[in-house]
Sequence to fold (175 residues):
Amino acid sequence: MNISPYFRQLRSAYAAELDDLTFDSEGKNILDKRLTQRRKEIDFLMSMMEISPEMVAAVFHKGFRFTSNRMMDHLLTLESDELPEWASLSQTIEMAPWTSALAATIQKQPMGDWFLTVAAALEYMFYKPEHAQASDANEEEDQDDEPLDEEERDAKAREEAGADWMVEQGFDRKE
Fold:
């Protein structure tokens, strides 16, 4: 399977986001506590759905169960502007009961359905380590010698804009 540049870039950002949420300064695992807090901040976080979807998608962590690996694998090959409608994808995803209110809130936004599709893809990739390790090492080595295409430049610009915005909000910049 060939993961699109869009999802390849978001996968590492999503993993880093969850890693940042997992441990406090003393090394204690506080992921569930931080996810609960993040879910309460959904109204604020929705402003970042398009610029930093990985940061907002964390609210759905552990909230999806996938019934069609084939559909999800295909989804990962698509670019952000090629994603299927959420209504067609959601038929292959079982959502935990606690996600209903979050999903309804997000779907009221103009990019809500698109975002739910991205969030599902990120969560699916997070639990597929075979895609996250071996293939990435080879792909990243191959890409180091190639110039960035327009989509990759756009993705990098979105990531940098999101990081700048977070710094403006008082957060430390992720390295």
